[in-house]
## 1
Amino acid sequence: MARLALLGGPKTRSIPFPPHPVLDERERKAVLSVLESGRLSTFVAAPGKHFLGGEKIREFEQLFADYHKVQYAVAFNSATAALHAAVVACGVQPGEEVVTTPYTFTSTATSALMANAVPVFADVDAETFNISPDAIEERISPLTKAITPVHLFGAPADMDRIMQIAKKHGLKVIEDCAQAPGARYRGKLVGTIGDCGVFSFTENKNITSGEGGMLITNDERIADVARLVRNHGEAVVANQPRTYSSSILGWNYRMTEIDAAIGIEQFKKMDQFNQTRNRLAKKLISSLSNMDWLAPQRIPPEDYSAFYVVAFRYDEQKIGIPRKKFVDALNAEGIPFGAGYVKPLYYSPIYHENRPFIYRHYRGAADYSPGVCPVAERLHFRELIMTLVCRPPATESDIDDIVSAVGKIIENKHELEAYNP
Ligand SMILES: Cc1ncc(COP(=O)(O)O)c(C=O)c1O
């Protein structure tokens, strides 16, 4: 009789992990109050305030700015939209380059393409999984205009070194904080260190508004241009008739009042959500610390991660089980884990056969060949395993199930010899 669920034995866990996001009466009431107000998007309907959005949007922005102690927060309908606006607002011109990590979500890089600029990929650090400052330096060219570090899985990138490099070369820094709201780098909230920071509120993020994004900055010009990009390039001036005239190329990246109302309620709970994430993630990491074939993402002790994801380097040689077999076995036990994250972005067809973006006057040498970022490749194709489940409303007993399942697989690893996917 097999013991492992993968081979027909009983599952460690037969019920799903608790559903996320956590929504309660507060979000419900907030949505109803917007419906009752009759204003779903004041951008269009209220005289005098079109450009800045409705009441809920402005309240959400103010809360976000106050929390981060920055002057400006601009809400968007996604982080992708906010990243694109950030690239434009940072003055990146067609054919210029933005250096970023290949180990991230697609729009960290495509936001440059949307401005006819060119992403250039710099490798990541093998232990923190975040962009390596040394690799950034190697990629700087006369065309480089900005750096977009990502605080991957909630853990801050090495911002001191990144800011030094930016200063030395006169570059803008756009922090992609989509996975890290409330995270701190050496005591400083992420998003407040670079020229601007961008957050995401899509459904599986630390806080959600359904869909949504936020850009924060202390630079008035970045805030103004970001608002223009959000609003068809059209600045509607308070108490003056609308001109329907666009100053710059803009889209409709506006958040709705309902999204903002949900975002406000979620934002009020963000610190508490992050504390739960930290508690659960640290419990998982410490419970697995005797397994020398698993190395958690390195988070320097002076930093605070938002633990969007808990990720480990898996050492196939040491444990003697191929990564895929191990992850399949965990999944079969009822424990959601993934092998790898997003394939290093330069593997996407968009950087090869489709290439819709190639700016015909581009004079640089961006390289999208396999092998350009070997550490990211090794992590993705061979080493990284990760889970999203250390988040509210999960509890310690949910984490105990993960630890039991890992222990069970190790005890019965001989059974996996019969499993050949
Ligand atoms: C690192 C990173 N950047 C950008 C985004 C894009 O966010 P959104 O889905 O809000 O556009 C995501 C979301 O998955 C992300 O993880």
Note: The chain has two domains: 5-12+270-342+373-418, 25-269.
## 2
Amino acid sequence: MIVGEVNIKTYLSKSKLPGVDYTINPYVGCPHKCVYCYAEYMKKFTAHPEPWGEFLDVRRCPVPLRPYMLFHTHVMLSSVTDAYNPYEKDFRLTRKLMEQLVFCQAHVRVLTKSPLIVRDMDLFKKLPSFEGALSFSSSKESFRQLAEPGAGTVEEKINALKTLKENGLSTAVVIAPIFPQITDWKEIIRLTRPYTDRYHFDALNMRPAYQKRVMQFIARHFPHVLGLYASIYEKEYISYWRHLQQEINDFCTQNHIPGQADFKHVFSARRTPEE
Ligand code: SF4
């Protein structure tokens, strides 16, 4: 892993995500190395010759976060990196930013695949509101090792949720991306339900930049579903996700699970002959 530093003028990016005013990405790059990483396009803003997942830039900004801008705004960490990646243990950059967010009294949501999130619970408790969201693409550690080799283990993430909950903090589970016929979303719900306030679901929305890599991953490790993937991603895209959305939503309603799938953005991202 090549670790460097870049100077920036601000950590804040205006967000178009619902209910989020700003996103903060303390790093460029991500050592979690998810096979489906949607943030790889960030490489073009760097001078790194190394492949995505092989470098990490620590973003340095001389200007502190300003309370007059952030007071009671909604801030999310992070959108194109994982703020609690293993290198954060030494750099403590996310922690320094969290101290500033406490000073600014911002509402904060953290999305991560790392158990390191629990280190900063003392700060989360001082925010006006906080939600810690852990993301899972499978409950099976064997799949996690293949698809997200640098991230926390399934057990570590469940333990992190439990610790957040036991400390009176709000929690969410993001079941994403859902790999057709692989992501055991009902089992993820079963394992996390006691420690989770809210569920969010997202589909494996393959963009051209990484579709080839993900299909090669499926061909290599899950050849028995390759035909299904070809069918979904070449012609039955909309109907597959509509059907799954309905199944998830019926299950959540019947079992009083706080969450609903909404794959509308996935439908609009892909035009197929079905439309
Ligand atoms: S944790 Fe997020 S940013 Fe990091 S590699 Fe995985 S998908 Fe990409």
Note: The chain is about 35% helix and 20% strand.
## 3
Amino acid sequence: MKVRIHRGAKQIGGNCIEVAAQEKRIVLDVGRPLEAAADEIVPLPDVAGLAAADDPDLLGLFISHGHQDHWGLVEQVSPNVPIYIGKGAADILRAAARIYSKAGVDITPAGHLLHRELLEVGPFTITPFLNDHNAFDTYSLLIEADGRRLFYSADLQGHGPKRAIFEEMLRKPPPQVDVMLMEGTNVTADPAPAPGISEEDLRADLARTVRETKGMVLATYSSQSIDRMCSMYSAARRTGHTLVVDLLTARMAIATGRETVPKPGWEQFLVYVPYFLRRQIREDESFDLLPDKAHRIFPEALPERRGELLMTFRMSMARDLERADCLEGACAVWSQWPGYLERANSKPYKDFLAKHAIPLKVHHASGHAYVDDLKKLAEAVAPERLVPIHSFAANRFADHFANVVLHDDGEWWEV
Ligand SMILES: [Zn+2]
Ligand SMILES: [Zn+2]
């Protein structure tokens, strides 16, 4: 079995890996680089048959999860390439696409990834392992062919709400792994990085901020992070507040199909439909997207109820809130990677906060394993060779893990 990392050997985002055995090939992820501009067309990695009409040797594309840095180029992939992805992940992406979100796509999978259920594709046997990660329904993949075993961690963490699944991986790791491609988002130039906070710590921090805020709490987090939305709901419940989500987040929550995920109709949970979406839905007559009126909150109610609302905030709602005149006493909570705040495209957000004198607090827990958890994973899987992926500090892996071997993007190597 041979492997070629097309992108990801030395960067976070845009993962794409090609695996070959007996003249047949599969592809793991087809991500969009994080640094690509919104309207930039990024060409597909150079995989024979990925864009072409038909190549009988390319047997499938396996998408580990619903983050764009793992699937973002999929619309350029030939419809003849069978796609495998978790059902929950595919449903969420489809729901987002229906709400006109760029973070969504309508994929028709040839098969679904299921926890520890084998898939046979030509000479390859693929076993997905469910991960604790901040995208719903994320999988690591064990690939077996020619008597060799490659384990691709994809993205994972050990401190989130599904940490039990990470602990199961440590207890019952994929056996006899020859090579592990392991993500290292939190491996950095710092030789002894301190672990960050857990999702549980974050819930407590959030609740404290909600309690201390007189006006509305404006929380910005990834609509795809169902875990984070659950943490927001938990903070609202603890403080007697109501969580307001935007329509996109509400549709994604419904798409999970999980009884444990808060959704329209639950107590202390309301949906706000931004003006631009109301207009779009009217134009398209897609009224089935709207929740029951009793489960929504309308702009007129915002000023009076502002002291009891934990409001999911997107910049596309900024004008709505200004018009509703409900921002007095508000506090903003940034609950995604703080690095985004340093980027030029966060200027409108920062300008909006400055204009209304809204203080900003960052409450975030990484969706990726801290180094101590990665060490536990590396020790449990105990691969013959460990190859870094999804990291800006691949050259620092050897400081923390045994048997590290570096491979560049574009290079073929044997498992
Ligand atoms: Zn990623
Ligand atoms: Zn991810």
Note: The mean pLDDT is 96.
## 4
Amino acid sequence: MSASAIRPSGIDGLATPSAFRTAVREWFDEHAPAKGSPQDFSAIHVVTSTTKAEYRARERAALDVTRQWQQKLYDAGLAGRSWPKEYGGAGAPVWQDDVVAEEQSRYGVSTKMMAVALEMVPPVLFVHGTHEQRLDHLPRVICGEETWCQLLSEPGAGSDLASVSTLATPVDGGWSVTGQKVWTSGAGSSDHALLIARTDRSVPGRGGLSCFAMPMAQPGVDVRPLRQMSGAYHFNEVFLDEAFVSKSRLIGELGGGWAVLRTMLRHERAAIGGGTSGRGAVQLVALARQLEGNNDPLVRQTVAGVVARERLLDLLQARMASGPPVPAGGSVAKLLYSEHARLTANAALELLGVSAIGSADATAEPWNERFLFAPGLRIGGGTDEIQRNTIAEWGLGLPREPRS
Ligand SMILES: Cc1cc2nc3c(=O)[nH]c(=O)nc-3n(C[C@H](O)[C@H](O)[C@H](O)COP(=O)(O)OP(=O)(O)OC[C@H]3O[C@@H](n4cnc5c(N)ncnc54)[C@H](O)[C@@H]3O)c2cc1C
């Protein structure tokens, strides 16, 4: 289908939020599957399998669906509305991005397979990147062509990323990077990584760190998948042995990696909090009906609790998008979201009873996947405890915890 054929008519001339929202909603009604319908792919990024080869095949298939959807959004002029035109956007006001995101969350679609590329790297490049770096990446990111991962955590540095020890040593034309990263989501399917490494060993902690846009396809990068309890090989160990990053790939200042990282983490929390895989209220209501539990008062109470929490999350997202800044809002959203994902999956498994144990059961399988995926959501992107610390210190102004 040509771009013009699917573009909401006159989209660039719609100045008021309500006219814009109506056009966007009409477009989604026509082009996006409904939540809970057989075509719903809002949890497509929750990929599981019993073998690495099968996982890679399913991951590729899920990535293809995500890319196609992102391309469709782009062709419709709905991707990156607020980005400058030179980077592929429409140069529109930021509220239009929020309207598209809000409307999209009402349908059975997801771009979470590409969350690092679409939701975390662009803000980092807009704040800290050079014009050339934006030109290099953003036009490919916006239409779903380029994938990214984050090379942050290490065996000795997770919550405390100031302890990162991967070393970037200056060489002709750039840096040679050696060290080990771990828990890297999507490393096997990413074109680039946002890497944090120590560029000055004489400065301990945050000061000696720098961030880079590192190409993943090179001899010094060895990706080894790790198996999760869900059966997924979602994340990986990544061994860096004299991997090369050129000078032009330094993001921000040399030694200024902490500031870049903070921008990335803030957007990561908000992106996870706005996720789709844990938003299962519509599907849970359908499950209760299918299992004929919808007249049982206890089931109704549980399901109503899930529906209410999801509504709360949606309202928080809407407030964060359009109101004044919510202090530590990303951490609040991420905390609520990870709790919601856990409680929704628990409720489904209670409804399913023993049939939840048999993974061959087509109704139970997606809920089993959600159930096993949920604990990871409480850790990835900063653990629940770290979010609580952030909310206490930055949101509520409570005394800071002692820093060593
Ligand atoms: C699904 C998933 C995907 C991930 N994807 C990526 C990725 O793509 N890239 C990447 O770099 N990393 C990724 N991670 C890693 C993740 O960011 C880290 O696991 C996380 O930051 C915690 O670090 P850690 O595992 O080293 O635990 P630790 O930091 O060692 O924490 C251990 C425990 O101590 C608690 N704790 C630590 N410090 C404090 C404190 N100050 N106050 C209170 N409690 C504290 C923690 O809450 C936790 O319960 C992913 C993890 C998961 C589960």
Note: The domain at 14-147 is CATH 1.10.540.10 (Butyryl-Coa Dehydrogenase, subunit A; domain 1).
